[in-house]
Design goal:
The protein has about 160 residues and is mainly α. Helix content is about 80%, strand content about 5%. The protein contains 6 helices and 2 strands. The chain has helices at about 5-20, 20-25, 25-50, 70-85, 90-115, 125-160; strands spanning about 55, 120. The termini are far apart.
């Protein structure tokens, strides 16, 4: 099983991008800043996690890259855009859908990551990981709200002038 871990990581990054054309160009452009933002937040969280030994990545696609990169560029980036497309403007639905996906990742995917020798939780419980994911989800929603209501609004006003 461990000999396929690099393939598993690569597929984790590539498969979500296979669904990106289904988003539509307008939706992708609308939520692209939020996708970039959450990818950067996941990267920042991983830096903190590495220092505090919350979790550990055993396998990487390249020796100079963290094991979180495929997840950051795949499911977190594309998945966040999908979730925002389905739920933005309906906060409690957004939170519920995010919790469902985060629970699936935490309680289904993380054990497989450990089994395949890709990553494991070290000084963090699964419940604490859920708190981290929920915090990131809240930050993402606030980011999209501010972006939509401040940046886009100012851009539209400037366009009308």
């Amino acid at each position: 099983m461990m000999k396929y871990s690099k393939i598993w990581l690569a597929m984790t990054m590539i498969l979500p991008w296979a669904t990106a054309p289904l988003l539509g160009k307008k939706t992708f452009k609308r939520y692209l800043p939020a996708g970039i933002f959450i990818a950067l937040m996941v990267r920042l969280t991983n830096v903190v996690a590495k220092r505090r030994k919350w979790w550990w990545w055993y396998e990487t696609l390249h020796p100079r890259l963290s094991g979180v990169i495929p997840f950051m560029l795949g499911p977190f980036f594309v998945g966040s855009i999908w979730i925002l497309k389905w739920t933005y403007g309906k906060f409690f639905r957004y939170l519920a859908v995010n919790m469902a996906f985060d629970s699936m990742f935490t309680y289904v995917v993380v054990p497989y990551l450990t089994k395949f020798g890709v990553a494991s939780l070290v000084r963090m419980t699964k419940m604490q990981l859920m708190y981290v994911f929920t915090f990131l989800a809240l930050i993402l929603y606030v980011f999209q709200f501010l972006y939509q209501n401040i940046v886009v609004y100012k851009w539209r006003l400037k366009k009308l002038e």
